[in-house]
Amino acid sequence: MRRLVVSFLASVATLVAAAVVPVDPALAPISDDPRLPRVLLIGDSVSIGYTLAVRRELAGAANVHRPPANGGSTKIGLRDLDRWLGDQRWDVIHFNFGLHDLGYRWPDDSNLNAQGVYATADNGGHQNVPPADYERNLRELVGRLKRTGAKLIFATTTPVSADLHSYVKAAELPYNAAARRVMQAEQIAINDLWAFTTPQIDQLQIPGNPHFTAKGSVALAREVARSVRAVLPAPPRAPVSDATWLQANGVLIFHDAFEREETGNGAKAIGNGWNSATADRVPQLKMADLDAGILKISSATKEAGHAAHIHHEAGFTDGGAVVRFRFPGLNKGESLQLGFVDRDTPGIHAGHLCYGILAPTSVTLIDHKTGVMNLEIRQRRQTYLDRKEKLPADLEALLKAKQVSVPWKPDTEWHELVLLTEGDELRLSLDGKVVARHRSAGFAHPLKRWFSFLVPSTVWIDDVKIWKVK
Ligand SMILES: [Ca+2]
User: Fold this and answer.
1) CB 225 within 8 A of CB 155
2) Looking at the structure, do residues 260 and 374 belong to the same domain, yes or no?
């Protein structure tokens, strides 16, 4: 029985405690969306009043936190700041002190004495933190806040529009003047909530009270959210396609939509600056046909002793080509090789720098310059091939490191292909998605002089664009 009574009393105590100390939802902790920046609102009951509305305003843009307490005066700030900051990173800290500094206190630091009288300016009270101390405290708080690396925004203290208890009308003015001096000297952004609310204070504030109505808190929240949004770090860059990257960062140095007729079968028959290393080998055979605005390549590989090779001036370090292509017949062993050539650099067979190769089962990116087309490597490899011997392990490993292959299956549809170099990376995209990327020293060759195609069978090409990024 006795145990039951104790237990009953404990339950009552719990209920009473819960009833007496309701948890203000503005003070409740939140869980972060790890993709979003972290914002901390520091301030007194005015800021508690706008916290939830700021959180709503910045939903999807920031995690809006606040200490689970009234921020009080600058004295409380100096005492509790480290605890409020915790040990996590803050991107933005929006803070205010003032209302609890300017309030009046009795000599024992209470604002209400035993007789139920509030301390004021004319009954022997003193301001909790006089303006000069406030300025000094604020300077120290700013120094500590700056060490967080967060973007800082100071909100000016909203108006005390009437005498109430220990609050004296217009007492915020010297405090805001002091705060402006500190913030200007420390180059801290100011969200001037005083200037924002003053002209419309009757519509926003509870009459005769420094607190704001629900509507007033929402208006303040919009101002706070606006000031925070202005300094939020840019959202992580949405993944952009390589075609978009070229467009955004490069200059279009060549475009050919092939809306014309070719002139014969020679090397320059395609026109518009195109040339061929193989056309003149078989002038009697037409390998490149301009038809219906499309470059239709049909290689006489057997007769020419080489796949059709067609090239155009490019001339960039970083940049790339965008090409629409189609394998209309999808012949056996069909492939399309696109790449960059620099015949003027010695030590590389035929100037082959690097290629992207679309083959029947794979896409391959290969660095020829420091790989198989490097004359020394090529010669060394050839001796083993001539002797029909297995390549030594070191040469095998070197050549393997120069390329990457990913599985791929061709079809007969039109596709957009982007082949680009950025630093020592070569990337190949199909229809807006990177399908292969590889880093190798040869990709960084300073001058991709030509853009070239190598087509052993039948490929249609349209809309060739060459972009120079650098
Ligand atoms: Ca066309």
Assistant:
1) no
2) yes
What distance in Å separates the CA atoms of residue 76 and residue 69, rounded to the nearest whole number? 11
Domain count, the chain: 2
Task: Output the CA–CA distances (angstroms, integers) from residue 145 to 15, 30, 72, 92, in the order listed.
Answer: 39, 22, 16, 10
Going by C-beta distance under 8 Å and a sequence separation of 6 or more, which residues neighbour residue 317? 421, 444, 445, 446, 447, 448, 469, 470
**294 CA to centre of ligand 1 in angstroms:** 5
Q: In sequence order, what DSSP letters do the residues of 262-294 get, joined into one string?
A: --SSSTTTT-TT-EESSGGGSTTS--EEEETTE
Protein residues near ligand 1, an ion, with CB under 5 A: 257-258, 293, 462
**Residue type present at position 73:** S
Task: Dump strand ranges (E) for 160-293.
Answer: 189-191, 251-256, 275-276, 288-291
pLDDT, tens digit (0-9, with 9 covering 90-100), for 372-420 = 999 999 999 999 999 999 999 999 999 999 999 999 999 999 999 999 9
Mind listing the pLDDT tens digit for each residue in 276-287? 989 999 999 999
Would residue 124 count as lying in a domain? yes
User: Long-range contacts for 427-435 (Cβ within 8 Å, ≥24 apart)?
Assistant: 427/242, 427/320, 427/365, 428/356, 428/363, 428/365, 429/241, 429/242, 429/243, 430/363, 432/241, 432/243, 433/241, 434/242, 435/363, 435/406, 435/408
Domain final residue pick, 229, 250, 280: 229
Cα(19) to ligand 1 centroid in Å equals 76
Same-domain check for residues 111 and 50:
yes
Three-state SS for 122?
coil
| Residues 70 and 44 sit within 8 Å (Cβ to Cβ) | yes
Beta strands in 330-398 (DSSP E): 336-341, 352-358, 362-367
Does residue 380 form part of some domain? yes
Distance 290 CA to ligand 1 centre (A): 9
Same domain? For 313 and 369 the reply is yes
78 phi, psi to nearest 5 deg: -65, -35
**From ligand 1's centre to the CA of 288, what distance in Å?**
14
Q: 462 CA to middle of ligand 1, Å? A: 5
* pTM assigned to the model: 0.54
Residue numbers of the domain that contains 164: 25-229
CATH of the domain at 120: 3.40.50.1110
